[in-house]
Amino acid sequence: MRRIGWIAAVAGLAVAAQAGVVSDHGRLRVSGNKIVDSLGRPIQLAGMSLYWPEWANSGKNFYTAAAVQALATDWKASVVRAPMPVYTPNSTPAVQLNRATYTPMIKTVIDAAIANDIYVIVDWHVEGDTVMADSAKAFFQDIATSYPNCPNILWEIWNEPINSTWATIRTYTNGLLPTIRAQSRNIVIVGSTGWSHRPQYGTTAPIVGDSAIAYTAHFYACTDTSDFQATVRTAAAKVPVFLSEWGTTSSDGRTGYCQNWADSWLALADSLDLSWANWSFSNVGGNSQALTGTSFTATTTSGTYVKGKIQQVYDKLQGTLSIRAPGAVPVGFSARAVGDRIAVVAPEGTRELEAVSPSGRVLDRVPAHSGSNLLEPGTGGLVFVRAIGGAGIRSTAVVLPR
Fold it and tell me: Is 54 an active-site residue?
């Protein structure tokens, strides 16, 4: 049921609004020190992290389809981060995990990300060293099995280790990977010691035997300045780095506001194609909160600033990586199922046509010509059709019989 659900959601969105970020770029992968899209193009994502759902009703209230839709359509986010609360030493009790309560909330966010054609980070949100490995396996098995081969999902498997050694983190990662890989080849984001402040461990003792690993770095603008920037720059020259959590404030996530250092960090991210998620899309949390109340458009100082930066990354994503016409089928472009094949009329200037699976695998590719073209993807279900030519890449979706 879940597999049918996410395919139907993506298919409905792709037909109604045409290609979004995931339709344009497919399953992300690792190439050298970069995160790239399904066509091998370096990609930078930008969006928001949700807040701890259990600390206040205000946090819980944003794990909704409406919130994700606002992020995708108004904020122009290409990624949303969904923290699964597990453990934090700053709360009583410190163990926050309640899978029965919070897993459905995570799935609501995933479903909404799929429906809005953006990426979603599923985050095992441990702040500290109580990682609860068996529970992590059960959680990730549930999500991965519910959304098999879904290209939208990125896996963040340990938010912020504090004192755990890199050897411990590697052992945990290697123990968890088979659970995820049974259903998903998507990128796994690995945290590091010191509140995910040691991405350089990925260069000296990397996770081996898996080709889709990225290393996270978390920063807060008032606390993490030039020294940590140098660390991130050095690591990113050798391994893919994902800035999966950052704030405009001090490291407590509540006090201070340092826009100059935030500018500096985001300029670095832009120059290195480092994707990021800001903490946090909520109306609680002090100076780092993005919203003043329940309205998705009523923003704090930090929220106004971050929203503008997200939109800049969106403009870059659209302008340099994929040119498309949101909300309208390009003139002269149509695709329809004819049995197990796809009949395509290509827009003017198209050189090649491709049939691409939701995971980003090219199923068929033919030179384009005027009139009707036939693609033979050799598979049923959702298939994206790409028209590649002088106008960039345009895409639409077709659902073939299984």
Answer: no
Distance of CA 100 to the CA centre of its chain: 24
Considering 127, 156, 245, 354, which one is annotated as catalytic? 245
**Domain 2-321, CATH number (from 1.20.120.80, 3.20.20.80, 3.90.550.10, 3.50.50.60):** 3.20.20.80
Q: Where in the sequence of the chain do the CATH 3.20.20.80 domains occur?
A: 2-321
CB-based contact 161:169 (threshold 8 Å): yes
Query: Is 0.90 topped by the overall pTM?
Result: no
Pick the catalytic residue: 54, 127, 156, 160?
Answer: 160
Residues 323-350, mean pLDDT to the nearest whole number: 74
Task: Indicate the CATH number for domain 334-400.
Answer: 2.60.40
pLDDT band per the 50, 70, 90 thresholds, residue 371: confident
Q: Give yes or no: 245 in active site.
A: yes
- Judged against a pLDDT cut of 80, whether residue 324 lies above it is answered with no
